[in-house]
Specification:
Shape: globular
CATH superfamily of the largest domain: Queuine tRNA-ribosyltransferase-like
Helix content: 40-55%
Distance between the termini: 21 Å
CATH architecture of the largest domain: Alpha-Beta Barrel
């Protein structure tokens, strides 16, 4: 299922086998929240060197609906993407709707909230999250957890950890029931052709709670473990300490998933600490707003300083926006700057492609050892 091919210090290179192909780790998953990476086709994503994507369980279950997607043959057929797909649990969206807006509540049963898109009350339980993901037919499921704000108290974090552990037990039981599994079959995902199942380690910035959560989830048994919680912008040192601590808690033979880790420096840090997977909206969202990552630092193409700049985004890059054609460089910074001024979608697309290519190239360097 997951095999480490090469390790050096803490970082490692591996392969994660799924029903729709191998994920060569370390790897980045762009967010296709509603079944699409904004402004991009899946051909664009593939050409950028990305071999796996993430879609959002909660949004897909409501619009167009997981029953509809099941009828259409599952996500891979519906999206026409025959490569690995990871679906999240819906926990992060629940956090956004409940903890930030106060629009709903979390109980032992699950998370109750009102979805702004339809104005209706919904209840997401650990069992329902598994059943939705089964209808979507993704390659990697994530069980429902209870993420809370980074400034939450010890008491609040303890409750979130306790709920996360209890929900994980229920989610795995629902997974066993849905796929008619026992422990022996669960331990042989390739033989029995089942999806992979990840859980999420919560605990905020409290090491003892992270340790409690990880120990309980490891005892339950999953294929991979995600780092849960918000990456605090104003407390980077503590966040990195917790990320490094998380990596030490997860067994060597299990996938370590940096959920929401997206800035290049953070990705590099986590790779050096032994993480395997990452997902975030950062590269594509920033690309749509004119911010591009390059081999010499970030640049904001909306800035007037690029109005007369005829250089491509990054001469070291071979993406569609940068590559040389007929001995001429790709789209100039000046051209892209003016497209942003004109609010043309094409510049958002090209900068998103460039950023995804930057991330895939960054991680490819680690895979070369």
């Amino acid at each position: 299922m997951f095999k480490i091919l090469l390790s050096q210090n803490k970082r490692r290179v591996g392969v994660l086998k799924t029903q729709h192909g191998d994920i060569r780790t370390p790897a980045f998953l762009p967010d296709a929240t509603y079944g699409a990476v904004k402004t991009l086709s899946f051909e664009d994503v593939s050409k950028a060197g990305i071999e796996q994507i993430l879609t959002t369980t909660l949004h897909m279950s409501i619009k167009p609906g997981d029953g509809y997607i099941k009828r259409m043959g599952g996500l891979h057929n519906f999206l026409n993407w025959q490569r690995p797909i990871l679906t999240d649990s819906g926990g992060w969206q629940v956090f956004s709707l409940i903890h930030q807006s106060g629009n709903g509540k979390v109980s032992e049963e699950g998370a109750e909230f009102i979805m702004p898109t339809d104005g209706k009350k919904h209840l997401l339980t650990p069992e329902e999250s598994i059943n939705i993901q089964a209808n979507l037919r993704s390659d990697i499921f994530v069980v429902l957890d209870d993420p809370i704000i980074g400034s939450a108290t010890m008491k609040e974090n303890k409750r979130a950890v306790d709920l996360t552990i209890e929900w994980a037990k229920r989610a795995k039981a629902a997974f066993f029931k849905r796929y008619q599994l026992n422990d022996e079959k669960f331990d042989s995902p390739e033989k029995y052709k089942r999806p992979l199942l990840f859980s999420v380690i919560q605990g905020g910035n409290y090491k003892e709670l992270r340790e409690k959560c990880s120990a309980a989830l490891i005892e339950i048994g999953f294929d991979g473990y995600g780092y849960g919680g918000i990456l605090l912008k104003d407390d980077r040192k503590t966040t990195r300490e917790m990320l490094a601590h998380f990596a030490q808690l997860v067994p060597e033979d299990k996938v370590r998933y940096g959920m929401g880790v997206g800035k290049p420096d953070d990705v590099r840090f986590c790779v050096e600490e032994g993480f395997d997977l990452f997902d975030c909206v950062v590269p594509t969202r920033n690309g749509r707003h004119g911010y591009c990552y390059t081999s010499f630092g970030g640049i904001n193409l909306k800035s007037s300083k690029y109005r007369y700049d005829n250089r491509q985004i990054d001469r070291e890059c071979d993406c569609e926006a940068c590559k040389i054609r007929d001995r001429r460089p790709g789209a100039s910074r000046a051209y892209l700057h003016n497209l942003f001024k004109a609010k043309e979608i094409s510049c958002m697309r090209l900068c998103s492609i460039h950023n995804l290519r930057y991330y895939s190239t960054l991680l490819k360097e680690y895979k070369r050892g």
